[in-house]
Amino acid sequence: MAYVITDICERAGACVDVCPTDSIHAVEGDANWPTYYINPDTCISCGACAAECPNEAIFDEADPEAAAFIQKNADFYTKGPGKNLI
Ligand code: SF4
């Protein structure tokens, strides 16, 4: 299980600072990847990021709000610019 960032994200950045596993990443200036993303392979589902997000943009992947964004988060690390960040 992992937490998932949705398109409500406005890159406030608070989540990055509290993540104990450094699982949250973004790429500046890439319109194809406009939010922050969570690496599902390293997220330990602690929930710290969701509690800190000022926009309430982060959900447990079991939450229906996350469903449409689970693959996008994973793709960032396997097909997108996140390949170069981990
Ligand atoms: Fe990091 Fe915890 Fe959020 Fe996973 S749930 S991305 S480990 S802060």
Characterise this structure:
22% of the residues lie in helices and 12% in strands. By secondary structure, the chain is of the alpha+beta class. The protein has one domain (3-84): 2-Layer Sandwich (Alpha-Beta Plaits), CATH 3.30.70. It has a two-stranded antiparallel ribbon. It has a two-stranded antiparallel ribbon with strand order 2-3. The two termini are 19 Å apart. Iron/sulfur cluster (SF4) binds next to helix 2.
Describe the sheet with the most strands: 2 strands, antiparallel
- Could you say which small molecules are bound to this protein? iron/sulfur cluster
The overall average pLDDT, rounded, is 96
Number of strands: 4
The name CATH uses for the topology is Alpha-Beta Plaits
Poorly predicted runs: none
Radius of gyration: 11 Å
Categorize the overall geometry. globular
Strand order of the largest sheet: 1-4
* Integer tally of domains: 1
Count of separate DSSP helical elements: 3
In N-to-C order, the SSE pattern is EHEEHEH
Strand content: 5-15%
Helix-and-strand structural type = alpha+beta
Helix percent reads 10-25%
Broad CATH class: Alpha Beta
Q: What is the CA–CA distance across the termini?
A: 19 Å
**CATH architectural grouping:** 2-Layer Sandwich
Sequence-ordered SSE layout with sheet pairings:
Elements: E1 3-5, H1 14-18, E2 24-25, E3 37-38, H2 48-52, E4 58-60, H3 70-78
The chain binds iron/sulfur cluster.
